[in-house]
Amino acid sequence: MAQNASMEDFEALLNESLEMDTPTEGSVVKGKVIAVEAGQAIIDVGYKMEGRVDLKEFANPGETPDLDVGDEVEVYLRNVENARGEAVISREMARREEAWDRLEKAYADEERVEGAIFGRVKGGFTVDLGGAVAFLPGSQVDVRPVRDAGPLMGLKQPFQILKMDRRRGNIVVSRRAILEESRAEQRAEVIANLHEGQAVDGVVKNITEYGAFVDLGGVDGLLHVTDMAWRRVNHPSEILSIGETVKVQVIKINKETHRISLGMKQLQEDPWDTVVAKYPLGSVHQGRVTNITDYGAFVELEAGVEGLVHVSEMSWTKKNVHPGKIVSTSQEVEVMVLEIDEAKRRVSLGLKQTQRNPWEVFAETHPEGTEVEGEVKNITEFGLFVGLPGDIDGMVHLSDLTWEGRGEDVIGDYRKGDVVRAKVLEVDTEKERISLSIKALEDDPFAEAVGGVKRGSIITVEVTKIEDGGIEVEYEGMKSFIRRSDLSRDRAEQRPERFGVGDKVDVRVTNIDSKTRRLGLSIKAREIAEEKEAVQQYGSSDSGASLGDILGAALNRDDDDN
Predict the structure, then answer these.
(1) pLDDT tens for the 562 residues of the chain, in order
(2) What is the pLDDT of residue 347?
(3) Percent of the chain that is helix, strand, coil (3-state, to 5)
(4) pTM here?
(5) 462, 502 in Cβ contact below 8 A?
(6) SS3 144
(7) Of the candidates 514, 510, 505, the residue with the CA atom closest to the CA atom of residue 472
(8) What whole-number distance in Å separates Cα of residue 359 and Cα of residue 301?
(9) Pick from 464, 450, 470: nearest CA to 512
(10) Contact criterion met (CB below 8 Å) for 298 and 306
């Protein structure tokens, strides 16, 4: 019985020994290098088992293997024995298993891992993470697109694992995440050492239409185009170039967004400090047109000092013309300072003020009554506009076209381009108006006709037309109308038909209207006036004489005089 027990114990110990010494297939085992020959390392993995591994499996991509006899290494046992009686082992698979264990722990702890880019594939690169191969997408290589990845190949550097699946053997890593994290730390450190108002040196990193980005040593600041110079800058490339070192001032720092605003002009003398002294109101200066808009033109008086010539201050005569028709960009012009607003940093300039007011010049050279000649520029319902010296216009109102007839009837005889002569009636320099008259070139026939006639005068007229309401008469070529009620003192005699065309009639002038060019005439007024005169000369009702006697005496006297 005792002998049997000892045999069982020995067998158990033997089996335990065999299990301990015999490696399990599909596991990582330790071995010792016993020889290096023909590009291979012969490794003893125990239990009198040896296997061969290519030397290249002991080196990282692009490196030379460093392996000597006696070195202990870990290998992956794929098969205990092959056809030649050797163990089938792999250093690469051992490294991969070891790497996956390490990488899974790093992924769980969100730690960085070290690796080297060793190949280019579609959409990105392959990275060796110490035995495990990962995919690095092209978008995760750098914070900006990388045109040449050559300098990054084979270089050991940290990566962040974005995704991994051991069963499928997939690992996705990012180099960009490391750079952004480092950059954020660097930005925070640089920003902590900056303060508003500080002057620093920077390198122009990028130029856009609205400004330039300047590298301040790990952090970028925006230098806006309006803060580059006191003068107008149309595009940043006018004064900056990429890679140029510039001195800038920190204008503002946003601690939350880490955005930095920079300025260059703030380090220069502000030209506005001397504007009021250098450009007094009413002074005239030479300037350059820098920009033209619908409402005017900007003129640079000096670097950093621009003024606006409003469209209303550009020309005395061109009122509804675009500023671009009067001046052009880069043109040198003479302007007058009209107003300065220091608070808003605005200068109002005038272009027309540097030239004499053409209406004032015209008034001096063409006083009232002067005859002028000009071309008809425009014809409206109320008159003609005639071009005059100084590129200005004068107006001939309808009422000043002719002495005879209505202006509405004769304006149709004129055409644009006709050259006409007229007389200056009035020049209003404030309202910029010139009144002309064509009819004033000739004497007023009405004035000539009634020159010796006064109100109350007795004149002889000729009947030219009989109407129901009265009679039309003519005096020295001037037509007038005597109403029925003015045909006689006696109502029974107020009949137009008692007159005939061609009759001569004595009438009394009751009104002279120069505007309507009409005489107010009345037979009735003449008769009443004659009666009063007879009463005064030949007696009154108090003397006992009758009205018939008085009028008879007056008539007899008239007959005797005749």
Answers:
(1) 445 556 666 566 555 554 545 566 656 677 777 777 777 777 776 766 777 776 777 766 666 677 777 777 776 676 666 555 566 666 666 677 777 888 888 888 888 888 899 888 998 999 988 778 899 998 888 877 777 888 888 888 899 999 988 888 889 999 988 888 777 777 777 777 788 888 889 899 899 999 999 988 778 889 999 888 888 888 999 889 999 999 999 989 887 777 889 999 888 888 888 888 999 999 999 999 999 999 999 999 988 899 999 999 998 888 888 999 999 999 999 999 999 998 888 999 999 999 888 988 999 999 998 999 999 999 998 899 999 988 889 999 988 888 777 888 888 889 999 999 999 999 998 888 999 998 888 877 777 667 678 888 888 889 999 999 999 998 877 888 999 999 998 888 889 999 999 999 999 998 887 777 778 899 888 888 888 887 777 655 454 455 555 555 555 555 454 4
(2) 93
(3) 30, 40, 35
(4) 0.47
(5) yes
(6) coil
(7) 505
(8) 29
(9) 450
(10) yes
Of the candidates 416, 407, 417, 409, the one whose C-alpha atom is nearest the C-alpha of residue 438 is 407
Closest CA to 403 of 513, 517, 511, 480: 517
Kindly compute the dihedral angle of the four CA atoms of residues 218, 223, 228, 230, in this order, to the nearest 10 degrees: -130
d(CA 184, CA 443): 96
- Reading phi first (left if > 0) and then psi (alpha if -120 to 50, else beta), residue 164 is in beta
Report how far residue 103's alpha carbon sits from residue 113's, in angstroms, rounded to the nearest whole number.
Answer: 7
Helix (H) or strand (E) holding 162: strand 156-165
Distance CA 114, CA 133 (A): 12
CA distance 498 to 262: 105
Cα separation, 225 vs 337, in Å, equals 27
| Predicted local distance difference test score (pLDDT) of residue 538 | 63
Q: Which domains does the chain have, with CATH numbers?
A: 26-109 (2.40.50.140), 110-180 (2.40.50.140), 194-267 (2.40.50.140), 271-350 (2.40.50.140), 358-437 (2.40.50.140), 448-537 (2.40.50.140)
The amino acid present at 12, given as its one-letter code, is A
Q: What span, in angstroms and rounded, lies between the C-alpha atoms of 77 and 81?
A: 10
Six-digit token pair at 550?
A: 């008085």
Task: Give me the helices (H) in 150-290, please.
Answer: 176-192, 275-278
H/E element, 46: strand 40-46
Contact status, residue 229 vs residue 265, Cβ threshold 8 Å: yes
- Assess contact for 365 and 421: CB atoms under 8 A: no
DSSP label at 441?
G
Name the phi and psi angles at 222, rounded to 5.
Answer: -95, 125
Can you say whether residue 477 is alpha, beta or left, with left for phi > 0 and alpha for psi between -120 and 50 degrees?
Answer: left
Contact predicate 131/171, CB 8 Å: no
User: DSSP code of 489?
Assistant: S
Rg, C-alpha atoms of the chain: 58
Extended strands (E) in 166-315: 170-174, 199-207, 211-215, 220-224, 245-254, 259-263, 284-293, 296-302, 305-310
User: What tokens does 412 get?
Assistant: 């149709």
